[in-house]
Amino acid sequence: MKLYNTLTRQEEEVKPSADGEIKVYSCGPTVYSRQHIGNYRAYINWDIFHRSLLYLGLKVKRVVNITDVGHLTSDDDWGADKMEKGAKLAGKSPNEIADHFIRTYLEDLSALNVLAPDASKVDPGMDLAKLSEHGWTRATEYIDTKIELNKMIESNGYTYETDQALYFDVSKYPDYTKLSGQKLSENIVGARDEVNQDPQKRNPADFVIWMKRTGPYANHLLHWDSPWGDGFPGWHLECSAMGWKELGESISVHTGGIEHIGTHHTNEIAQNFGAHQKEIVQMWLHNEHLLTIEGDKLAKSKGNAPTLPELLEHGFSPMDFRYLTASINYRMPVKFSLEALEGAKNARMNLIQRLQALSVESSGGGEVIMQFKDRFTAALGENLNMSEAFAVLSEVVKSQEDPQDVIATVLDFDRVLGLDLESSIRVEIPEEVRDLLAEREEARSAKDFGRADKLRVAIEELGYMVSDTAQGQKVSRRAA
Ligand code: AMP
Ligand code: ZN
Description:
The protein is α/β, with parallel strands linked by helices. Helix content is 42%, strand content 15%. It binds adenosine monophosphate (AMP) and zinc ion. Residues 27, 29-30, 38-39, 41-42, 256-257, 259, 287, 289-290, 297-299 line the site of adenosine monophosphate.
């Protein structure tokens, strides 16, 4: 499978580590508010990636972080901690806020059929103490690892300390800007006035790896003891620390959004080098954003980003949103509108209706059609060419192949697409509907068409469609 590596600016074959596993680290949510559909675009894209690796028969170990401390409102080390700000607004503790929004995150993932990092189905009611068993790493649970990593960075000579913080000294790492390819001066978000609040900071690009509970953070609620005093870890540190702890010193792929290239991932690479004296991530993958029609990034801070429940209020299914985002390559910016979503909904309905029509005649047990599977697999291998993958899907459905084989092929593809097609197309007729069908059959034999029509309506009300064919009545599920 070839993927576009931001670091080398070319497509490369994804490689497992020495133990044969593809190790994947994905930047996850900051749980201070409900995640919005922009966030879910990213999670669906990386879920497709994860499912594709599994579909190709590769062994995967994946970690997704949950940020519940240290993500400041400005990526450049100053501003309020997003968790504390969210907690204050709600009159709750940071931990309560984190638990609450982890729960809504799990609910949304489950609705969108996004797999857990360990590839299991997400149980939205799961015990939050068991998140780590499924591959999620919660930042507050890895404070010791972060301190350990900082000690390594410090003993290798990449840090300096001020009264306010322990900094990574960017001047010690000449490759600092290699991920973004920018000049150092362009790379610095920290050039804004509000940022240079620490008079002892040497270079605006230096970044905090441990913030002391002093100055603007004297009352920070979340804090731990460390060799640099009471305080809390820098945000960028968490991914370096948790990735290393859970995946080791050879990480095949690290995913995140394009906004992470200039600062968050640039800093991660620097920290990794500072600690391990080598590159530990082979490939950096970045998803483009979900945008407004005007081309702005959907973002919580801009107030332009609906949540999933807000979308559903417009009568959409979570699968409509999944269809929309799954069918577009992760490196394509996507402009979101309800019209675009409507288009995805119609396409999905069409697909389901065609499949339902086929499944009426099918009793299951078909075989995957290799000619289509090969093309589908090749499309995934081309840096997740999803428009080609969906084109193959559409061809299979319209083909003249045996309906059972078509269904089998589509369900095979759905292991990657995750559109939950199986439950949409399986026609399992409940007892109540069977009885009505039998009655309707009698009415039709007796040429009582008025009654037959009434029974059709009753059947439809139960969610099934009946059509009259030369072979008798045929039933399919009404599209959801
Ligand atoms: P956050 O909760 O802000 O830390 O963001 C979680 C993830 O969502 C990050 O990996 C971001 O790159 C991603 N993300 C945020 N906004 C968007 C967007 N509009 N489109 C795509 N991904 C996004
Ligand atoms: Zn991260």
